[in-house]
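User:
Care to share a sequence and structure tokens?

Assistant:
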Amino acid sequence: MSDTIAAIATPPGEGGIGIIRLSGPDAQSIALKIFRPARAGRLRSHRVRYGHVIGPNGAVIDEALLTFMAAPHSFTREDVVEISCHGGALPVQLTLEAALAAGARLANPGEFTMRAFLNGRIDLSQAEATLDVIRAQTSAGLAVAQAQLGGWLAREVRAARAALLEPLAYITALIDFPEEGIEPQAVAEPVAQALATVERLLAGADQGMVIRNGARVALVGRPNVGKSSLLNALLRVERAIVTPIPGTTRDTLEETANLAGVPVVLIDTAGMRASDDPVEQIGVERARSALASADLALLVFDAQQPFTAEDAAMLSATAERPTIIVWNKCDDPASAPPPAPEHPRSVAVVACSARYGHGIDHLATTIAATLLGGTLPAMGTTHLVSNPRHRAALRRAVEFLRAAQETLATNAATDLLAADLTGAANALGEITGETVGEDLLDVIFSRFCIGK
């Protein structure tokens, strides 16, 4: 990391401000080659200077503000310069080109964050949380990402890993120096403590991943039961066309809604029925495909109509999918809905009225709770593992720790215990980056944008 990198740090397109970021040992000297301050004087750390960006030919590119952050008090722990110019595509691009012509190198995707990790400012879980903050779709997802960026997961994982290192050192010494009469040390207790911590972290991982990644929910049913009206009601906008004519919806329609903090892709589908209309047949087939890819089905029935053979067919069509049975058109909240039909994967029954809004909030929270494993997390809960890589590493750590406990219980060979403890420590180290290879780092940071 002896070179200095540069990149545009703001999204493409027009905006009030465009930022070009430089990081590395020559960030200040390169900046002074392309920036002419309005007043003479050296750059002071964490102070903003006004001036103009100058191109290689000496012409003014734009007026700008320059902020210099001296190492180690910067995001990367290197000298960092940020030049804020007008947010048009051309001044931003020309400013970047001027920086490159003055000696900077174009940054790779995620290279600024990688330097922050390699220089010890953040660990790998915090680096990944940086991307989660950028990509958060709901306030709940943002809160979970911000908590991880704050380091709670790193602290938990490091504590569990540290609990294993002393017994691992003891077991290794027994193997390497069997004649030395080494003082006995406790092994079972720290292994049990580490296992309890890892299992506690895993317990909330499924919820955390749904909050981070979202889920797909298909609205299915026979024609004219009000699926499109339900979609509009859940979205709080008129997104789908609604008419009293059966078969109005001919194709799938996908829209994302924030349901109790969960980003949910709601998929409105064509009513499933036998038809000679080739266009409607295509719509029905796409509805089946949408159902097959969904994490949850909303099976919608019309509470004002008798239960039909087409309704019964929908029970079979959704039999392999977790399903919420929705009685729509319960326009009188004082009237009880019809009894729920038998369904092998039914997780809840909700009565509502898309027309008048009765029960829509209850339906939204039921969808979110179902996707989160049956209950909504307590208000303010942010300490949830939300990254699939972290969950996989925690699961491997649990396997190694349980194997270690079995080895201790059966007085099996000491080298087996050492292998189990090493495996658990390495799995935990993968989360924070202490035991991770360059190939995995390249994969992780390649997901970032160039300016981050």
